[in-house]
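Forwarding these from the shared drive since the link keeps breaking.
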Amino acid sequence: MSKKKAKGQGAGKPRKYPTVEELQTAINSYFSKNRAKPTISGLALHLGFADRQSIYDQMKIDDEYSCSIRSAITKIESIIEKMCLRAAPTQGVIFWLKSHSNARAGRGMWCDKQDIDVTTGGEKIQQTQIIVNSASAAKALKDAVTELGQ
């Protein structure tokens, strides 16, 4: 690989890693020290960032940097997915599907929440207003409502 500087460098704050190769070397160093249980937060700290969001922000700056960081994040996801499947296969699969179906498919294919409308068939319920002018009519209405509730 060539030691190309990233696009857009020259204005603003300098990069933590002037070349993609230096970034990749730091990423490789993280994985060699954290083979068993790597995390995205751990990678961020190892690379000298303040938090996970900084990694995502760094990915937006340049395609070359983005590729290295996305590959590292995908490797972490793969390791964690395998851990979930080994430790508790059924729960691991359920957790993974719930956590990732929205991000990948753009919709919630797997979730615990169900919205079921059994009364209106999706139609908006019309609000009814009842005005009672006499005490005897009010008592009759109250009695009718009480009777319906039983």
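-- next protein --
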Amino acid sequence: MVFFITAWPYRYCTDDQDDIECPARSQHSGQPTALTSAIPLLISQGGGIMFICHLGCWMGFSSLLGWIIFAVCYILRIVVPYNRGPHAFNPDLFVFGLVVNKWPLTGHEFAAKTLSEYWPLVFMFLLFFSMPEAKGRCDLHPMNMNGERFRFYAVEATIVATFATGAMNTSDSQGVTGWLGAWSLFAYCTHVAWDQLLPRPYGALLTYSFLPGFRAVHLYGSRNNAGNRDRSPGRRIQLARRSPILESQEEEEADSARTSGVLNEQRPSDASPQA
């Protein structure tokens, strides 16, 4: 895990990517150097974010912690760019997701409501910041100017904030997003392995073939949970109270109460006027 998060993105840092100076490359020979050349950058980015998380846990609950980590993640990408090699793993976003899952963002309800209501304006904002003339993997090989990197990462940051605040959540009347979320996490963690082990497109087909299995597990778990709720003492008492005999008795009592109420309203007053 440590190798894939740290060492793997720096394996192909060579001179053929001339967008920006690669920190894991020898400036004299142009050949890839050892991972030790990138240790200061890795410590300053990953270690700094982990220090912020531990500091927040030590000081106590704060809904601002997620926004602080969010700002640190993207400010570092804009101000301190580096070549990410052939694939971006983004461990900082994993840490951000863990923090948000534990401590929701400040104002996430207002942000989710606003983004859901005015999503066309959000898309217009993203179109203004997009750069159609940019070519290549700008997330792996950042562009030269701070302004260009700001425009590129502003789009990504907006989309991440949209997911983190819950603006993308739907009503889910059919109950499919729960097990689809579990399958998507499985697919994210395994799809590259299947793609490397099997010829294309059989790796992708294998990943999609797990969909019925996740659906079956979800249905089986739902039925077991429903059965456990029905077998619970509280549920049995509730069902007994709603038995047909008791329901008929309750209906008779309600009818008699309504009848007595009507009779009381129609009965004349017993008090007669005195002469």
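DSSP finds twelve helices and no strands in the chain. Residues 253 and 259 are 10 Å apart (CA to CA).

- D.
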